[in-house]
C-alpha cells in the first residue's frame, strides 16, 4: 500500500496506530534548491570548500560542489513532521549513509517504508532511501520514531 | 532458556544501548539504580530487547515490570 503524506491531525495514540501500519510506503520529492543550500550554510556555517568551491570539488573527482549531507536530514525531519498522517511524533533515531554525492538543484525522490512497529513503546521503524533523477540511490538508512501520547 | 542466561543477555543489551560498560544488572535493579535509564532510553532498551529475543510485548505488559527480574521473567515466559 502506497501513501503520500497527508495533513490529518490526530492526538490519539490509538488512532495514530491505525493510520500507519507495517508495510506502508510513503514517497515525497525534495529539491536541493539554491534557497535550501544557502539557508543551510547561513544557519550552520559549514563553508568547507567541498560544499562551496566547484573547482575544489572537481579536483577531487566530483562534478561540482557537493551538497551537505545533512540537508537530507532536514528533508527527513520535514517528512516525519509534516508528511505523515499523524502529528504526535518524535524522532528517536536516524541512521543514514551518504552513498553518492548530491548536487545543487537536484530533485530527489524519497521513499520510506514502515518496516516495524513496537506496540509496547509505540515506536515505528522505517527504512528509507533518497534517489536522484537517474534512479541512483544517493542516501539510505533507517528512522525510528515514537508516538507521543 | 534459563533466567540467568536471559539476565546476562539483557545486561549486554543495557551496556550497548546505554553506552555504559560498567552496568551490572540484578533481578532487583530498577531505573532508579541506573542514571542513563530514562524514559527515552527505556524505549530503546525495549526495542533492542524485543529484537534480540524476537518477542513482542504489549504496552500493558511492560508497564507491569517493576524491575529487571520481572522483565527477564516475562521474556522467559514468552520463550517457553
Compact description:
The complex is a heterodimer of chains A (149) and B (80). Chain A is of the alpha+beta class and 149 residues long.
Describe what this molecule looks like in 3D.
The complex is a heterodimer of chains A (149) and B (80). Chain A is α+β, with helices and mostly antiparallel strands and 149 residues long. Chain A has a single domain (2-147), classed as Roll (Thiol Ester Dehydrase, Chain A), CATH 3.10.129. Chain A is built from five helices and six strands; from the N terminus they run βαβααααββββ. Chain A has a six-stranded mixed beta sheet with strand order 1-2-4-5-6-3. In chain A, a hairpin with a 4-residue loop joins strand 4 (107-118) and strand 5 (123-131). Helix content of chain B is 60%, strand content 0%. Chain B has helices at residues 3-18, 39-53, 59-63, 68-79. The interface between A and B is small, with 10 and 13 residues.
Secondary structure elements and their pairing?
The complex is a heterodimer of chains A (149) and B (80).
Chain A: E1 2-4, H1 13-19, E2 25-31, H2 34-44, H3 49-52, H4 54-59, H5 70-83, E3 89-98, E4 107-118, E5 123-131, E6 137-147
Parallel strand pairs in A: 1-2
Antiparallel strand pairs in A: 2-4, 3-6, 4-5, 5-6
Chain B: H1 3-18, H2 39-53, H3 59-63, H4 68-79
Count the beta strands of chain A: 6
- What CATH architecture of chain B would you give? Orthogonal Bundle
Give the fraction of residues assigned to helices of chain B: 55-70%
Low-confidence stretches of chain A: 1-11
Mean pLDDT, all residues of chain B: 95
Number of strands of chain B: 0
CATH T-level topology of chain A: Thiol Ester Dehydrase, Chain A
Number of helices of chain B: 4
> What is the mean predicted local confidence, pLDDT of chain A?
91
Strand content of chain A: 25-35%
Protein structure class of chain A? alpha+beta
Order of helices and strands of chain B: HHHH
Biggest sheet features of chain B = none
What is the 3D form of chain B? Answer: globular
CATH class of chain B: Mainly Alpha
